Structure prediction request, 181 residues.
Amino acid sequence: MTGMHHMLVHFPLALWALATLMLLLGVGVRGAAGRLCRGGVLAVLALAWLGALAAIASGLLVWPMEASLNSPLTRNHLLMALWATALWTVITLLVWRGGEQAFSGGRGAVLVVLALVGSGLFAITGTLGGHLAGAPTAMSHLLERLGWNLYGTFYLPYWALLLLLALGGLCLIGGLGNKRR
Prediction:
């Protein structure tokens, strides 16, 4: 297993964790600290996105694709990495296109919820990667208690489906409630 992937994954993870904190502060704090977070989060998100692309590319080189796609654990790791990157791409686009408006009212609440879900996705991605590297974590036990057999084929537990439906409803309410005038 190559060490390059292990080194590269920490950049988007650290930057997305920082972006989550900045989004929370940008939505919840008024004044200089909130303005600073709102003003700087787009740069952090863009750097994290570039780091994620490099990490995914290096991860695809660890094993042959046939081997990766035949292992449920590796396949789940790859799925989670792609889903996390896709969600953080959406967050980046929302912040970029929405500007200061993205942090107010329902839109800000949607950003916070999406950031927290994105943080959960990259935590699960790292947990699965730890298993692949032979270093399982305590998060593994939590996932197993929630009904996910990490070594089995990926499926969507009912709680995850309900969460996705709730997020979709929240995004719809946030989008309808804050139309630009």
The first helix runs from residue 3 to 8. Residues 50 and 135 are 26 Å apart (CA to CA).
